[in-house]
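Progress note, sequence design subtask.
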């Protein structure tokens, strides 16, 4: 018996696994990080074009805060992960040092001071888009979070289907059998 074909198969499998691990744990996260940064750059550029069109001044506090926020997301994108956010939240709770909502308070105050309601709404849309990008980076970057969300969603769907199925069954039952008659018969027993 010649062990060479089996050895070749084992070595090929190990090499394939090594390449797969490099792709999954090195290349995919790197590409995701670059894609997130590029999307945030594009959104920041769109905000700049909006200001350059004269809708809001470059020195306006709302514009400045939003631009700084986007710059921070771009700069620290490598830290935007479910695990790091979870650890930070646990640390805040344990040390009893939750961060103050200074930025959010400043942002809301600055946006509320914008006189034009359409500009105010557009700035809120830019902020919302930035947070959507961040949320998708955090959620889609964590296999544990994805699996947890899928499990929770599946549980909710099954629970709702069960309630719906039970209600449907009761509806069908009441259409064929008068509940009054069943209650009367049950009361006689």
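Output:
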């Amino acid at each position: 018996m010649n062990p060479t074909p089996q050895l070749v198969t084992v070595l090929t499998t190990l090499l394939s696994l090594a390449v797969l691990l490099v792709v999954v744990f090195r290349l995919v996260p790197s590409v995701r990080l670059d894609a997130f940064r590029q999307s945030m750059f594009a959104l920041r550029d769109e905000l700049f074009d909006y200001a350059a069109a004269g809708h809001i001044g470059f020195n306006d506090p709302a514009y400045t805060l939003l631009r700084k926020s986007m710059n921070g997301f771009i700069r620290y994108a490598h830290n935007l992960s479910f695990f790091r956010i979870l650890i930070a939240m646990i640390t805040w709770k344990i040390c009893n040092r939750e961060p103050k909502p200074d930025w959010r308070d400043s942002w809301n105050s600055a946006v509320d001071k914008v006189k034009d309601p359409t500009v105010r709404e557009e700035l809120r849309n830019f902020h919302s888009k930035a947070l959507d990008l961040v949320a998708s980076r955090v959620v889609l970057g964590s296999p544990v979070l994805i699996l947890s969300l899928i499990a929770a969603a599946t549980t909710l769907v099954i629970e709702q289907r069960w309630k719906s199925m039970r209600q449907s069954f009761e509806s069908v039952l009441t259409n064929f059998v008068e509940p009054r008659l069943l209650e009367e018969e049950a009361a006689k027993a």
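The longest helix spans residues 4-52. Work on this subtask will continue into the next period as scheduled.
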